[in-house]
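Q: what sequence does this backbone want?
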């Protein structure tokens, strides 16, 4: 399979359920998770199940087990993964206290353009942005210095992989099926130590991907099904 290295992550990222968000009580409330005011970050670790939590933005559809994003207000960590179905809610302020998470997938958003609201996040093993209609920048990850893998896919408005802090370090990068992506200039000041896969970006010249490979000669760069062009 073409995406086997990222298969487990992307299976959850691109297959958000189409059932209304909220718990079995029908009102989206989560017991024991009364929201706190902005700036109150004294709740410590979120006491959820020992596994991926599916967070649900305003009016989003994220399955019967979806937890409203507001339930995380005031918590500083969650040791497992978050699958965040954004919906039409562009506000991540309920996650503004979050400093550590196993990894997160941000997906199915209709109006969010960046990751502002996650400025305190210092630790995440993976970062994925998937099927975000207006997403253009990773701005907001001000405190995150490194991660194992970054995945960028099916984002209709993204023209560059912009917004990562200078010196940001990752082991693996997967970029595919972003229809208006034309540049990788936003990666000029990041470090990649493992593998890069750039595939099926119909507006991104394969020459630009080759240039990225030249910058990282000691890693594998997969450059396939991107815009055909005659490279210098």
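A:
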């Amino acid at each position: 399979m073409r995406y086997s290295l990222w298969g487990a992550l992307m299976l959850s990222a691109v297959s958000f359920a189409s059932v209304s968000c909220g718990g079995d009580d029908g009102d989206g409330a989560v017991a024991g998770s009364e929201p706190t005011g902005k700036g109150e970050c004294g709740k410590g670790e979120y006491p959820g199940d020992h596994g991926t939590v599916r967070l649900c933005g305003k009016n989003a559809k994220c399955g019967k087990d979806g937890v409203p994003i507001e339930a995380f207000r005031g918590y500083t960590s969650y040791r497992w993964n978050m699958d965040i179905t954004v919906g039409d809610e562009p506000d991540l302020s309920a996650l503004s206290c979050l400093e550590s998470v196993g990894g997160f997938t941000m997906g199915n958003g209709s109006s969010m353009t960046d990751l502002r609201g996650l400025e305190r996040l210092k630790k995440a093993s993976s970062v994925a942005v998937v099927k975000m209609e207006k997403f253009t920048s990773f701005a907001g990850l001000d405190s995150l210095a490194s991660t194992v893998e970054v995945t960028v896919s099916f984002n209709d408005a993204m023209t560059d992989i912009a917004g990562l802090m200078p010196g940001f370090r990752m082991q693996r990068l997967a970029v595919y099926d972003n229809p208006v992506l034309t540049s990788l200039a936003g990666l000029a000041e990041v470090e990649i130590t493992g593998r890069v896969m750039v595939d099926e970006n119909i507006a991104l010249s394969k020459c630009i991907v080759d240039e990225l490979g030249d910058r990282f000669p000691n890693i594998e760069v997969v450059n396939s099904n991107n815009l055909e062009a005659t490279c210098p």
